[in-house]
Amino acid sequence: MDHDDSTGRLRCLVTGATGYIGGRLVPELLTAGHRVRCLARSPEKLRDHPWADEAEVVRGDVTDADSVARAMRDVDVAYYLVHALGSGRDFEDTDRRAARVFGERAKAAGVRRIVYLGGLTPSGVPAHRLSPHLRSRAEVGRILLASGVPTAVLRAAVIIGSGSASFEMLRYLTERLPVMVTPSWVRTRIQPIAVRDVLRLLVGSAGLPDDVNRAFDIGGPDILTYRDMMVRYARVAGLPRRLIVAVPVLTPGLSSHWVGLVTPVPASIARPLTESLRHEVVCREHDIARYLPDPPGYPLGFEQAVRLALRRVREARVTTRWSSAAVPGAPSDPLPTDPDWAGGSLYTDRREAVVDAPAHELWRVIEGVGGEHGWYSFPLAWSLRGWLDRMVGGVGLRRGRRDAERLRAGDSLDFWRVEEIERGHLLRLRAEMRLPGLAWLEMCAEPAGDGRSRYRQRALFHPRGLLGHAYWWSVSPFHAVVFGGMARNIARAAARQGPEVAR
Question: What CDD domains has UniProt attached to this entry (predicted)?
Answer without folding.
Answer: SDR_a2
